[in-house]
């Protein structure tokens, strides 16, 4: 043995650990006077290799009999406890903990050296969580690992991969705060909703996560329900609402969860929110109602279904702003529908009319001021390929501005003829009675008309179906 250098003896010891040689054989190597805390490669010591191999007996031997420093670190600051935590070697980890391995390097029990080390490396607890080593995580928490340690990007719980639900649950069981914000402004519950992870949502709610807390002021101040609505999972939305989530627009944020579900084309979430009490007539910060947003948002595959749900839950089809806006829709829903798109669905037009949309053949604005929020004259030019829709609108129109029609240069000659002919004679009494009956009913008017003691053909007439 005396012919070997210290480096060669150390390599021999490391190889013996790697191949799980007997403790007796390792003792022979160490009996030469080899320093068990001597650095091999990149600062790794024999104890690191024993922990990596999960060779528990060797771990115990190196510390108890050979004098290995339980907290000796490699060149990047990792101790044997880090190695065992990362790879899920529970037996070796417990052996290290039983022999006083430092768990919380920046805690009160840590030395000045260990606190300095904590600034350079990840804590063993974080390594266990990062690699989904639940048993090691629990063992570390039992021995005093800090479940609320704060990092640059957030607290310990903010760092948990959202799919590692058992790790999340273990942190919460040992006192992690479920309502801390990450550097990105999200609580764990918000992140779980955003990622559509129902299991994580349930765990967080079971540990008292707040459903109505808002993101910090430097971010869009959404709640968990906003993230759930945008993600489009109705089951998560139900779970959040079961826990007491408010459906209304929160303070200091422009939009309600319902509005985010609408613009995200999440039809099932829209129905859930409305069924559970979301206000179909709540306006955003620009005074736009949910129905105005729905008719003016382009590219929605479920636009008609969402609009019908809003109307069925009492959305006012005639809501409008007092002032004209370039930012968002400000006129009545049916007017905005024709303003924002060039492709039209006659069934959607009939739906809006059935639920009470008013139509006037007038100019809606003058000098950027709203004159008539129900005026649709400026959009009639788009209806040249849609004569059937124009006929329905003419039939439902309440008033005509014949002078404005004559002066509207965008209309075709045929459109002018149709509008002037309809507007030059008084509206017939049957139509006026229809309008009067509809005006007397509260929203939503379709179910009210269905309950009237009238023949079906008259109900259809009142609903502009014939």
UniProtKB/TrEMBL annotation:
SMART domains: ANK, SOCS_box. ANK repeats lie at residues 42-75, 76-108, 184-216, 220-245, 253-285. This is SOCS box domain-containing protein. The keyword Repeat applies. Keywords: ANK repeat, Repeat. It comes from the Eukaryota. Residues 426-466 form the SOCS box domain. GO terms for biological process: intracellular signal transduction. The keyword Transcription regulation does not apply.
